[in-house]
Amino acid sequence: MTAIYYDQLALSWHPESRSDSRFKLIVVVTIVISLLFAVTMSIIDVPEPDREAKAVVPERIANFILEKKEKPKPKVVKPKPKPKPKPIVKPKVKKLPKKKVDKKPLTKIQKKARDKAADSGLLALGNELADLMDTSDVSAMVGGKVKSSSSSATKATAVNKALLTADTSKGSGGVKSSKYATRIGSTKLSSQEITQVKQSLLSSGSLDKSKNASRKRKSRTGGVRAEEEITIVFDQNKSKLYSIYNRARRKNPSLKGKIVLAITIAPAGNVTKVKIISSELKDAKLEKRLLSRIKLFKFGAKKVEQVTVTYPIEFLPS
């Protein structure tokens, strides 16, 4: 029997020593084989590959190849002209001669109806709009002046004092009972007579007044418009004139004054001409607006002559 030493027994218990020795052996063997393979490969001569030379192309052939053949252009086919359509001959229409309509003269009723239609409806509105559109040459419209004056004829009825005081101038002639009694009776009769005279005078005065009024009416309605009619129309349209004035006062608060107008009124009642005689307003735009508004006034148709009236209007801030 062989004896086992301690070193051998200790190494047998460590398996790493065996694996390391194997690894080292394998590495050495592989390195040697690779070196041998590299040396042998470097020693062997490898022949160079044969390369084919490029073919040399002549110049004329090369030029011939470069020139490209032009493609033939496609022929443009012109479209055939379309046949023109034949004009359609329209049948001629013979114009019939217009029948002449004999215009019958208008009767008085038809004339009155035409005048009423002209003063009302769309015709009157068209005239008003035309007046509003053209109010530039108002200053040259009025040529003359017609002064209209109204004379107030008042007659004072004279009371006959001689009748009332007929018995007062007589003297008594002394105090006598008979005459005194008769005087009392005569005074009673004279008082009755006085009352009768007063009644007769009053009735005669009222008759004179009614005659004067009728004369005035006849003279007014004969050929001239009454001043009362003109003032009534201006009073009715006063608010419209003041609305125009108040609009102008918004720009000029110190605007005020009196304006005197000459207004020509036609028998139909419409205003034909308006002219400013004098004005304290000194505002041309306001005056033009007032003139255009006054031209729209309607005084009513009447059997009177055309009249020109001077009318003052005073504008004061309210």
UniProtKB/TrEMBL annotation:
The keyword rRNA processing does not apply. Residues 255-315 form the TonB C-terminal domain. Residues 72-102 have a biased composition (Basic residues). It comes from endosymbiont of Galathealinum brachiosum. Keywords: Membrane, Transmembrane, Transmembrane helix. Its main location: membrane. The chain crosses the membrane at residues 25-44. The keyword Nucleus does not apply. It is a single-pass membrane protein. This is Energy transducer TonB. GO terms for biological process: transmembrane transport. GO terms for cellular component: membrane. Residues 72-112 are annotated as: Disordered. It is found in: Membrane.
